[in-house]
Amino acid sequence: MELLEWAGGDLADGGVALGLRFADSWLTLYNALDENGIAFGQLGPQYRRLRQG
Fold it and tell me: Which residue in 29, 34, 27 sits closest to 16, CA to CA?
């Protein structure tokens, strides 16, 4: 499980998602602005690991 940050260059930039890694894919739970979103498949390049600092 990882916290992911959206960096897609749009209104959702900085949004945090929960990523669950499986053997060959990801289940991603994210804020779809006015609702919750669920995605299953490979992680898109817009996601990066959330770094706390």
Answer: 29
